[in-house]
Fold each of these.
Amino acid sequence: MERIVSLCKRRGFIFQSSEIYGGINGFWDYGPLGAELKRNLKDAWWRTMTQRRDDVVGLDATIIMHPKIWHASGHTTTFADPMVDCLLTKKRFRADQIEPSSGIVYSFAGAEARDAGFKVERAYSVLLQKGEHPDRARKTARLYYAQTANQPTLADKIELQGEKTEKVENSTRFNPENGSLLTEPRLFNLMFKTCVGPVESEENTAYLRPETAQAIFAQFKNTLEVSRQKVPFGICQMGKAFRNEINPRNFTFRSREFEQMELEFFIRPDEAVEAICGSVAQPAQPGHPGQPQANWGWQLWHQYWVEERLAFYEGIGLPRTSLVEYWQKPEELAHYARATVDILYKFPFSKRDEKGELMGEELEGVAARSDFDLSQHQRFSGKAMTVFDEELKAAWPKLEEKRQQELTERYCGARKKYLTKMGEEEPAAEKAAREDAANLARGYYVPHVIEPSAGVDRLALALICNAYAEDQAPDEKGKMETRILMRFHPRIAPIKVAVFPLLKNKPELVKKALEVRDLLRPHLTVFYDEAGAIGRRYRRQDEAGTPFGVTIDFETLGEKGPELKDTVTLRERDTMKQTRLPISGLVAALAEKTR
Ligand code: GAP
């Protein structure tokens, strides 16, 4: 990973934010190559998710929204991580990320330094791993007690009191770095707060969005009205999100400012599908279920989106073997989620399983979120989030009474479960759920949703990790040397083609090369380079991940025979293979290779 991080800085993919002031933890900037890479992958996502589909439209909403949005979504109350602090160093950790450790705990009841008039009665303990000398625990404890007196120089003079030892297994109460006791876990809300307007007050408090999804729910009705869509359909959005992560780590993987690409795909509740189609199709086998069908319920739609997203990643160069489809266990699911599949990428820093295989880290979550989100916004805003479904209205009266009752009871049960979970009193929840079920029979319901939610920065990092390669290639004198190259898929490579005149000091070559550059530029990102030996120029582009290089040489000028006039060499980054091509065919050939 260190080599990748160093290449990112050296070649201008990623810089630390505010580096000249020592940096700011959890914030990253994209340099010239990184900015192009990010733009390419976002374009690929946008094209795939909306422009190439009839059933998804886009949205571009604000980062700061009405604070009630975050009350409705539950972020103000539940978007929190448990944090703990090291009692010695004050370093903060996420409690759920502490690696369990075993060993002997040395506990002390307090400490005293008589000459200095210092006495403290406070319990403190240190965990020692197997083989560590007990004096290490005592030294750490003395440091801790000296710090509590704000007199670090006292440490050597302190006498510890009430020493006891105890064996512990798999404890997460101690700092894995120094064995010091941690504080009890406290919840820490991850939303960044700000103030809207000139007065800093509670009423003016707003939040930087921690996800882009909520704006989609808030604009659901407006978008539906103007887009002439009907359920099933989706709204997608990409943009910045902010989370005050307790422990940003693994380069850009967990940042405090990042970008998301999210789709909310709205579907009929299963009871409506059953009423219209007679039954709900069940997933028959793993893999892509094919073209969407009217009788799909949430399970098939969920499977469909997991497979669509996996295909997207493969299409931009992440091999299937580098991805993991992780089904969240029931106890890991959010309370409203019916199923969530995390798509993981095997980053070099991922943990390994017992066989030594990389387990992967989350790139994207594909969640079946029921009708939770729109229902919450309906309750908090007082605005109906229901849709009218003509086909449901027409189908309902044709159902047998028994079937109508069955569907009504099931729908009513699900609505009541949601309402009581959200704190509605039993009679009110029963009444509201009955009304919802009566509305279903008239063709109205709150749509359910499938949410594929991906992170731009994590994907950029995965693409960088996946592209990084070293091989052996001959230098100027034919001697083999290590070559660093970024094997980006041409679709997302920051620069698609580099144009080189063979020699800088031959005006005819330079003139022709500039003509070729200008010919290609309207179609592709082109980098023109005339500085240095041609071999060095190739290497520079290999490191930038440029998949193709076009060299203008003396054959191009017709000096080696008329049949080669106006032809160039096209070099492929990965194989270093060179082929000759007429300039007139370049645009078509490169467009084909980078599409
Ligand atoms: N609307 C659902 C949602 O936001 P999430 O799993 O919290 O779900 C979705 O976030 C994606 O956003 C993640 O899979 C990840 O790619 C990205 N993401 C989340 N937190 C991040 C962070 N601190 N830094 C970088 N990317 C992050």
Note: DSSP finds 17 helices and 29 strands in the chain.
Amino acid sequence: MNFTLSEEQLMIQQAARDFAQNELLPGVIERDRDQKFPHEQVKKMGEMGLLGMMVDPKYGGAGMDSVSYVLAMEEISKIDASAAVVMSVNNSLVCAGLEKFASEEQKQKYLTPLASGEVIGAFALSEPEAGSDATSQKTTAEDKGDYYLLNGTKNWITNGGNATYYIVIAQTYPEKGHKGINAFIVERGWEGFEIGPKEDKLGIRGSDTHSLLFTDVKVPKENRIGEDGFGFKFAMAVLNGGRIGIASQALGIASGAYELALKYAKERKSFGTEIINHQAIAFKLADMATQITAARMLCFKAAVEKDEGKDISESGAMAKLFASQTAMDVTVEAVQIHGGYGYVKEYHVERLMRDAKITQIYEGTSEIQKIVISRSIAKK
Ligand code: CAA
């Protein structure tokens, strides 16, 4: 087992770190306050290859490995978790799913602009009454011969307002349960496809989350992904990889908060000494550093297994479960270490604490991760 990062991985990490410091840090507080999408920054991330990191260059991607993706996600998330979720959804839920399962024509038409960052994509699975219970899709895709007729509502869709292409999961044969579900590529602007209002969120406020409304939207047959009835398996496979992205986002939120807390603890004095010299503070930092290192190792393990072509349902779920709890624990302590300063916007840690919470909810709640992990270990 080798714990040394390659030259290339270190370069990607440094490039992402520099980009986050120079391009994301300015204005991050205002974007959070005003719920402003980082348009210019996302465009630059596309130019840097950060939006299709693992996609083959022949489809517009950067052809990097998954460990590089974890490293870049961590650096971006340390500074701006909103920009990071745009990146994670485009890479893991949209591009990875298309590269693995779409037809050659679909890849040429949709994957190439998405992986090169020319446009961004969204993944629409959740519904008003089907989040964790993903089989209970109420959105229908009726087979009409040459096309499917799409009707229904999707909720909580990241990139919902700014995407150009949407992967939409819908039920074609309700009597077949999960085997009756299909996945489709739907284009923004198609007749009957309406984007609902933006959600006013606790955290990741710079990212846009919308509902999507479909009324008799005609989806051409050639826009179905994979075989008839493959949609649920497609969604599960995509989410397995997506969980590495969100785990890395959580890792970045935690390490961003930790670095700020460590710096503050070395500077701030109380009772005649820097507060890091008080055991009450030093032990908090020790716990934070240990949890972060463990979370990073779980992210790397899942990333390496993904590149080896292994089943990553268990390792991806473990990484997300642990890293998202780490993000919560570490950000709460980072605010505590900062005292009153931690409670105001200027010091960043309160935003990171708000951003952390969603990592325990989206792309499978922590409770869902435990279902995935426990089913996997029970099979062994
Ligand atoms: N990987 C691969 N295959 C899987 C799988 C996984 N993680 N989980 C289930 N499957 C397969 C099963 O093997 C089974 O296949 P067979 O029929 O061939 O045996 C099939 O899928 C059905 O599985 P289950 O019977 O286990 O299905 P279930 O109804 O009990 O649900 C679940 C399983 C794990 C709870 C699943 O519903 C789930 O993962 N739910 C969470 C969904 C989720 O993550 N939602 C988040 C929305 S996306 C989002 O947040 C995007 C965003 O914008 C950021």
Note: The first strand starts at residue 121 and ends at 124.
Amino acid sequence: MTLRAGRERSITRRHPWIFSGGIADVHGRPAPGDTVLVESDDGRPLGLGAYSPESQIRVRMWTFDPGAAIDDAFVAERIVAAASRRSALLASGTDSARLVFSEGDGVPGVVADRYGDTIVVQLTTAGADAWREVVADALFSLPGVRCVYERSDADVREREGLDARIGLMRGEEPDPGLVAHEASWRYVVDVAGGHKTGFYLDQRNARAAIARLANGRRFLNVFSYTGAFSVVAAGNGAADILSIDSSAPALEVARRNGDVNSLDVGELMEADAFTALRGLRDRARQYDLIALDPPKLANNERQLEKASRAYKDLNLLAIKLLAPGGTLLTWSCSGAMNADLFQKVVAGAALDAGRTVRIVDRLSQPNDHPVPLAFPEAEYLKGLVLEAE
Ligand code: SAH
């Protein structure tokens, strides 16, 4: 494949994506997921990547060494190396971690989360899909793995022309009572029916922050999912807890999370968060600690304006509910929204609420979601810890 003149620049800077508009010529008829040699317009070989004919991101680079061989051993070695980079984390008070984080680990389109003896895999690109058996074998070969389960049902597969695939890949069916252990707590992981791979490993830093902040405080957990934050707060002496989510199955798991930890996780409210927050505001409720962790509200740049308004509404309502001296933990997991814009949106909310609010900390994705310096797009989770006067 030959790039247009000048379009080799990002590749020589080790950025792994080639957009369709950057391509001058495709040689032969590569199938989805085939490895293609990428060349500059003057014929200089730049590396090898996976071809995705249906996607705007037409090629994702495997390597910037044009002489490398992309074969079973190459892919297996990347998977095993990524997993081994998590061994210190997995020896430090948790049995659960993201083992493979797509471009963050040099394996575009492959996400693998480990929960104890179970690994849940998401393959989101044609290139990843082409190597699914190799990926499954490599993960199943890791020590102590009983089950490798596939949850390739993310919407992004559609953009790659791939159908959803859910089911057992290797070993035994997942345990319906599967729990992730982290710090002193257990979290039920619904591998087959939960969101994504079943649990938000990416909020590990937040759980640690809430453990430090919860004691004696009235806690409002908005977009609670399975109540992981509520478990931590309950276990660390929160005075009173309200968890809000629109998903009844997620709240049912939140209830089970209370049981498996022998904790009272407080009230679980099935509701639309925007409506519920307005209701709490109208009843002049006050909280000392609020977590606001909405789903991705902007999928791309075009949705940014609308998403900014939604983030602002949510943060405005949350800031109004903060008692004097209260703490708000607020996130955006939209890759399309950068940290600067998010901070500006939250600043606008504080202004409209008429409150003086200070940033006292920032919460990012944890170290099993690494961001290559050459690929800042991997950084998607931005969190602010705010204190209101
Ligand atoms: N903080 C959670 C993860 C939140 S994921 C954790 O650490 O586990 C986002 C959640 O928002 C999902 O559980 C989803 O069901 C919920 N959600 C999406 N739209 C919603 C809405 N309009 N109102 C309430 N909850 C919503």
Note: The CA atoms of residues 339 and 382 lie 6 Å apart.
